[in-house]
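DUF3302 domain-containing protein (Photobacterium pectinilyticum), 127 aa
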Amino acid sequence: MFLDYFALGVLCFVAVFLFYGIIAIHDIPYEISVKRNHPHQDAIHYAGWVSLFTLHAIWPFLWIWATLWREDRGWGFTKIQNEQNELHHEILKLSEQVEHLTGKVAELEVIQARKDNSTDTQQGGEH
């Protein structure tokens, strides 16, 4: 009789332990997002509760989502953004140089055409 009650107590303890353990585990991404001051804390928290109904199938994605954000560097794309800005400025410089060189080539073509016309008129007059 005592062992029956003891087994029932152990069974209840394990059930309660698992229940609270699962709830504590599902909240880990939310706690990470709070610690990192994530801009999507509420969405991560709600998605964590939804993950209880999906048997935590989306939980790894929530963990990744929560850990990608850092307050000091955001999503981590600032380096790429800075490189893109530098490339954009270099492209602008190169396009200005191309326009300048195109103008010079046009000037040289005009000068060459005038020289050709003057030599043609001089040769035409000598014949």
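The chain has a mean pLDDT of 88. DSSP finds five helices and no strands in the chain. ok done for today
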